[in-house]
Amino acid sequence: MVGKLTVITGPMYSGKTTELLSFVEIYNIGKKKTIVFKPSIDNRYGEDIVSTHTGFKVKAHKISKSSEILNHISSNIDAVFIDEVQFFDEELLNVVRNLIFKGIDVYCAGLDISYLEKPFKTTANLLAMADEVIKKKAVCEKCGEHRATYSFKITQDNREIDIGGKEKYIALCRECLKKIKVNKTL
Ligand SMILES: Nc1ncnc2c1ncn2[C@@H]1O[C@H](COP(=O)(O)OP(=O)(O)O)[C@@H](O)[C@H]1O
Ligand SMILES: Cc1cn([C@H]2C[C@H](O)[C@@H](COP(=O)(O)O)O2)c(=O)[nH]c1=O
Ligand SMILES: [Zn+2]
């Protein structure tokens, strides 16, 4: 038996973590054994917790290197859930391949592109290997349409990796991003 890989991607606030945790619930209702991982760099909601922007939380293992995931996998695990995959090293692809060949279903959630509109390599690699891709959209915080595919940085900090939420990023659609870039003002 082999497992399958599902990747949930899109901009910030598009519901990636909500969708990931809804899959955790589905497996748990079916009395399947699940395990959740997050990167240690993301300390927004506490050490060992994955949380949605609405505050729904589940316990998670905090990982600083992709290969550490394998140390937590026992023979009875049915499904593995990994949030914020954009922050993991590229070895995650091999780790995930190893898991699905063992018969474990894997669900990954993460940003497709940074605020610089550059693809995150680890997410891009996982998308290439996925059996199923769920591409989410957020509500554009400029025009109010449910078509935002960009995370736009509203601070002057130009680091590509910069943990945060609404105080740093808003979701925008392409139309509104274009207007902002042309007019050079929010
Ligand atoms: N611009 C937005 N568009 C859609 N949802 C938003 C927006 N801003 C805040 N939210 C809230 O964020 C929730 C999604 O949070 P979450 O699943 O953590 O998203 P993600 O993991 O993609 O950042 C939505 O259910 C909604 O309550
Ligand atoms: C766009 C963008 C985001 N980040 C950070 C900001 C947050 O800590 C996470 C994304 O969280 P979410 O669950 O998808 O809302 O990533 C970043 O470091 N760099 C970026 O370009
Ligand atoms: Zn818009």
UniProtKB/TrEMBL annotation:
| Protein location | Cytoplasm
**Protein EC:** 2.7.1.21
Provide the alphabetized UniProt keywords.
ATP-binding, Cytoplasm, DNA synthesis, Kinase, Metal-binding, Nucleotide-binding, Transferase, Zinc
**Swiss-Prot/TrEMBL GO biological process terms:** DNA biosynthetic process; thymidine metabolic process
Q: Which organism is it from?
A: Thermosipho japonicus
Spell out the SUPFAM superfamilies in the cross-references: Glucocorticoid receptor-like (DNA-binding domain), P-loop containing nucleoside triphosphate hydrolases
Recorded family membership: Belongs to the thymidine kinase family.
Q: Which Pfam families match?
A: TK
Q: What is this protein called?
A: Thymidine kinase
